[in-house]
Structure formats: C-alpha cells, structure tokens
Design brief:
This protein has 256 residues and is mostly beta strands. It is built from two helices and 17 strands. The strands form three sheets. Strands 1, 2, 3, 6, 7, 10, 11, 12, 13, 14, 15, 16 and 17 form a 13-stranded antiparallel β-sheet that branches. Strands 4-5 form a two-stranded antiparallel ribbon. Strands 8-9 form a two-stranded antiparallel sheet.
C-alpha cells in the first residue's frame, strides 16, 4: 500500500494541480525462484484551479496604452475556476530476481539473469475538466519499460533500460545505461551508480545515484539538444530524488 501527494503550480495564473492517490499492489504469483508477477491500482483525486484575475486576454489590449489594461472586460465566460476530478491508474510488473542480487554471492538463483519489465495505464477514466467552460479530457497515458542487470565483476554491473510513453499522439522514448559499483563492507552493501539516458530527439541526461538497503538518492541533469536549444542554449534542469521503500510484510504481520 502507498500514498502519493503531489502539487504543481505554474504560470502567471497560478495554474495549480493537486494530486492525491492511494495505491495498492498485489503479488499474483506464489513465491518461486524464477518468475514474479505483480499488479497494482491507484485511486485518487485531482484538484485543478486557476486564478483568472491574474490573466489578461486579447480583448484587454489597449491601443492607446500600447499594452494590456486589466481594468477592461475580457469578454470571456467561465463557469468556474476550480474542479476536482476522480482518477484511476493501473499497472503490472514482472521480474526474475532483484537487480542487486547479482552482488550478493551464490544462491539457488545465481544463474538467472535479473530481468524486469512493466506496463502502466494512467487516467483510465479519462476525467473531463469543465472548470474553464470547455470539455478537456485527461487523455490516457500508456507507459512501458524494461531493463536488466549484467554483472561484469565482483563489484561492477551494468544496467541497460528503456522507457516508452504515449499520450494523445505524443511519443516519448528513453534509452539508458547505468554502471553500478558495490562498496561492500562486511555484510552491508552500498551501491553507487553513474550513467545517463538518451531522450529521443530531445535531450541527454546524466545521472548519479546512491543506494543503501531501503534508501535511495539520485541526482540528474538533462542537456537539451532539440529545437528548444536556441532558447535554452542546451541548458536543462536538475532533478533530485530521495526514496524510501519499506520491505516489511506488515499486512501478514498485522494478521499474525
């Protein structure tokens, strides 16, 4: 189970989108050494709003001022400036064994290559926005991804991966490669990774990460080379991630 809370605000009109989702995931397969299949669903709400008082429109342009005059009528009709939508997402995930198992010595599954793949669909209900007076659907977003971990040495492994997304006739393809290094200290494993991704016709991403047990830290920067590079001069943006994944089977513990 999980909870996701995300808020995003942008633009002069403070266009705001607040997402709150509750997640539940289930293991389909019984415990075995070779194949693991999971599925999950998210149910939640999307609250969208905009401050129309901060926006100006074509009819508010004043030729006398040579600029926009917010005191003039905008001649626009809006039913409301906020709305709450119901949202639902679904996904499935398959893997043969955990990626970092390649560093943990011999076992019954040591000869099995760690392979993972997943498929997700977002906005299954295609919620309709009406808060600015028009029907605007949240188009379904389809996501597929896959990867593997290949050990090169006792302390080194590479992880090639791929991500594909499709929404409203827009495509996004990412191809990545990470180099992992295991800083083993006794029975503890500390993992450092460095690498990058190629985002088709858009950008190259360089990244650095660190993992220890249930904690993860990541830092990345994308270098833009699409048509936007004229304005951005190739500069992209930093992304920082902190993750914590608790592995305890608390549902079973609760019933025990």
């Amino acid at each position: 189970v999980g909870i996701i809370l995300m808020n995003n605000t942008a633009g002069a009109g403070n266009l705001n989108e607040l997402n709150f989702h509750v997640s539940g995931a289930f293991r389909i397969t019984d415990n075995n050494d070779m194949h693991h299949l999971h599925t999950g669903i998210q149910l939640g709400l999307i609250h969208k709003s905009v401050n129309l008082d901060n926006l100006v429109f074509d009819d508010q342009y004043s030729s006398a001022l040579g600029d926009f005059d917010p005191t003039l009528s905008n001649n626009e009709v809006f039913d409301k400036n906020k709305e709450t939508l119901f949202d639902m997402n679904f996904g499935i995930y398959y893997y043969t064994r955990e990626r970092f198992d390649v560093f943990k010595g011999k076992s019954a599954v040591s000869n099995i290559l760690p392979v993972y793949a997943g498929f997700s669909t977002f906005h299954l209900t295609q919620p309709k926005e009406k808060y600015i007076g028009s029907d605007n659907y949240q188009y379904r977003r389809w996501v597929g991804y896959a990867g593997t971990m290949i050990q090169l040495h006792d302390h080194f492994a590479i992880e090639p991966n791929a991500l594909y997304m499709y929404q409203a006739k827009n495509h996004d393809i990412n191809l990545g490669l990470l180099l992992h290094y295991d800083l083993k200290q006794g029975t503890d494993h500390y993992y450092i990774n460095v690498g990058g991704q190629y985002r088709h016709k858009d950008a190259a991403v360089v990244s650095l990460g660190f993992n220890y047990e249930e904690f993860g830290f990541g830092l990345s920067y994308d270098i833009n080379f699409s048509g936007l590079k004229t304005a951005t001069r190739g500069r992209g943006g930093f992304e920082i991630s902190l993750t914590y994944t608790h592995q305890k089977d608390f549902i079973a513990s609760f019933f025990r």
